[in-house]
Amino acid sequence: MENNNREKDIKRMFDQHQPELNTNEIWEAIEPKLKKKKKRRFLIFWFLGGGLVLLSSLFYYNIGSNTSSEWLGTKVGETPIENQNKTTLNKEEKEFSIATDQEETPSNNTEPEEYQSSLLASAKSPQPSSTKTSKNRTTINTISEKTNQETLPQVEKIINSKSTFQTTSESETINSTIPLQSQIELKESVENTIVDPKTTEKEDKELLAKEVLEEEVLPLLEKEEKEQKEEEEKAKAKKKRKKIKPHRRSKWEIQLQTALSPSLAYKNLKDNPDIDTSVPAYIAKRKESEKQLEAFAYNVGLHFQHKRSGLTLMSGIEYRQFNERFSFSSSEVTTSMETGTITVTENAAGNIINSSTGLKSITTTVTEEQKLYNQHRFISIPFGIGRIWLNKKNAWKVMGGFEYNILYSFNGTFYTNLENRTDFNKDQDRAYYNSIFKSSTGFNLWLSGEYSRSINPRLSWLIAPKLQVPLSSTTQAGFQVKQNFFALQFDLGINYLLNPKKKTKREEPGKRRK
Amino acid sequence: MKKLIKGCKELERRSQREMVDHLSPFLYNICRRYTHNHEDAKDLLQESLIHIFNNMDKCQARDKATFFAWSKRITINRALAQKRKKGLEVESMVDNTHHLLIVPRIQSQLNVQDILKLLHLLPQNQSLVFNLSVIDGYSHAEIAKILEVKESSSRTFLTRARQSLQQLIQKQEIDL
Predict the structure, then answer these.
(1) Rounded CA gap, A43 and A514, in Å?
(2) Which helix (H) or strand (E) holds B143?
(3) What element of type H or E holds A460?
(4) Is the C-alpha dihedral spanning B160, B166, B172, B175 positive or negative?
(5) Exposure of A261 by Cβ count < 10 A (0-12 exposed, 13-18 middle, 19+ buried)?
(6) Are A194 and A76 in contact (CB under 8 A)?
């Protein structure tokens, strides 16, 4: 007991303790490390995107220029023979393409000039791809003048350090590949081989220098290219990873709602105040002749629900149809003169003793009663705002809003005045129809309550009574009466959650955090 | 406070600055209990504040009480993380009684600084469990989870902490 009191005292002491702190100092220390408000994020992205495009175009441009400047040998096949001769002879030591192939080796007495020209000739007329073995082939590809000059001293050092080298005629094999963008051109240069029959020691050294250069420089280039490829692959992988990145949990739930709604409709007919004449008889006749029947609606909408506040917004599209029965009766009276028995005289026993015949008038009354069916069709776009109360398994929602009717059409018959009825069909007398009916009725109000119960994490069924109050008439301003519809709908449908909460992996109970 | 929390969630500097004034003393008290000196406590406080402000989007608190509770939890977690980095030592009860000269004789005269000094004389696990259980109000199950020990161990640590504190006070009384 004493312990408990002491502990309570300690706790209270700590709770009440007000340390002396310089909050300015703390703020100054933490302020630079705090996240900054993200502004003009899109602009930054645009700049970044632009920068990337610029960089990539520069990158491609550079690759193109490198190919042409570094690999002069690739031009051999393109320039005229005379020029090539000059070029090759001038740069005899600096750029050439040499290969020894035992099978292709010409006679050892071939002079160097001839040897060069044979190279050029072979370059000019590319030979078919060789099927011969390349096992003993030594290929030295053309290296840029600059690279050669820069690296030659180093290469010489390397040569000196290589004691095992004898001659190139000993068929030392160096297989090298040239993985550059100009592979096709390089293939040509590889094929353009020159066989050097009299390889002097000096030339051997040079050859070795080339070989070493090839060994040293080409792998570097290869490495660079590999690195580039790796980077590209990494970038691709990163993009993929970004795509796979789990969806950030949204605070808004988006539901697709679809419902079919049996409805009760009430047609309101009243005098048009814009027209002076009052027409109660006409309205009475209309009411007598028209009776509301079944009505239904079908709607599809998107509902955005904020999880925390319960704020709900919706919009969608709704089709509504009100059916009504129009009944009217007409009687036709016809009188005709027909010949027939006019007088009959009977005796006490009831026998006819005398009769006279002549013309007599017969009046026939034919009463015809017809029942026709009319349809009022509406297509509207509703907008709503409301609140949802989410429970574990069910949800309650109250919403209200307005809807904008984008299309109204009437198909059927009704009395256009006290005596005449008119059959309105789309094809018949469209101008007259337009003088009576609006094609779009405009805004209406609605209010609804909804109960939904989940079937699974995505799906839930719903029932929602909905009241619609018209704000405008379906008839034109010049028509003698104003006609609008009130409706009580019972939405029966389903909600489909478009962004369900993703399941997170729970730690196994036995596992401890490291 | 609601406006301040909202402002902090929107990363508004003014709101964050004001929140530092409100939050710092409260969090400093926590930091001070889990560290041995003012400087360490200040560092922990700064680290916690940075973590709090940078993770406001994860905070679901709307009122002061829940926000402070959330901040407290973060601060304690940071403190424990720091301790884990250094390595939680299961120390034996070392003879630190020579420090007791600074401990006042009568418990009723103890102030916050004295209690802190006493707490720091305890082995680390005992002081941690005492802090978490008695002052921060965590259950043994929660403490067991936080410290990655058995629930029974947590109880034992608390009992030992209580005994040790009593011993420390009594010894001081006898010496005097």
Answers:
(1) 42
(2) helix B140-147
(3) strand A459-470
(4) negative
(5) buried
(6) no
Segment (H or E) for B84: helix B64-86
Phi, psi of A175 (to 5 degrees): -95, 120
B65-119: per-residue pLDDT in tens?
Answer: 888 888 888 888 888 888 877 765 544 334 444 444 444 444 556 677 777 877 7
In single-letter form, the type of residue at position A493 comes to G
Q: What are the backbone angles phi and psi of residue A214, rounded to the nearest 5°?
A: -60, -40
B69 occurs within a structural domain: yes
Q: Angle CA(A440)–CA(A444)–CA(A448) in degrees, nearest 5?
A: 135
Which amino acid, A179?
A: P
Distance CA A64, CA A60 (A): 6
B50, A34: Cβ pair inside 8 Å? yes
d(CA A75, CA A189) in angstroms, rounded, equals 9
Q: Kindly tell me the burial class for residue B33, based on how many C-beta atoms sit within 10 Å of its own C-beta (0-12, 13-18, 19 or more).
A: buried
Counting every residue written for chain B, the total comes to 176
State the count of interchain CB pairs (< 8 A) between A and B.
Answer: 69
Please judge whether A10 and B135 are an interchain contact, meaning their C-beta atoms are less than 8 angstroms apart: yes
Ramachandran angles phi, psi of A308, nearest 5°: -80, -50
- Report the candidate in B5, B21, B25 with the shortest Cα–Cα distance to residue B70: B5
From CA B42, how far away is CA B39, in angstroms rounded?
Answer: 5
Cα distance between residue A175 and residue A100, in whole Å: 12
**Is residue B64 a contact partner of residue B6, using CB atoms and an 8 Å limit?**
no
| pLDDT tens per residue across span A438-465 | 889 889 999 999 999 988 888 999 999 9
Mark out the alpha helices in A245-292 (DSSP H runs). Answer: 280-289
Dump pLDDT digits (tens) for A43-66. 566 667 777 777 777 666 555 444
Is residue A466 helix, strand or coil?
strand
Q: Based on the domain organization, do B81 and B103 belong to the same domain?
A: no
The verdict on a CB contact (< 8 Å) between B28 and A21 is yes
B154 to each of A360, A439, B31, B151, how far by Cα in Å? 122, 78, 21, 5
Nearest by CB: A11 against B13, B107, B135:
B135
B92 found inside a domain: no
User: What percentage of chain A has pLDDT greater than the value 90?
Assistant: 18
Question: What domains sit in chain A, N to C, each tagged with a CATH number?
Answer: 69-237 (no CATH), 252-330+367-497 (2.40.160.20)
Question: What stretch of H or E contains A410?
Answer: strand A394-415
d(C-alpha B31, C-alpha B52), whole Å: 14
The count of other CB atoms within 10 Å of the CB of residue A164 is 5
CATH number, domain with residue B59: 1.10.1740.10
pLDDT at A448: 94
DSSP-derived 3-state class of residue A176 = coil
| Minimum-distance CB partner of B134 among A7, A34, A35 | A7
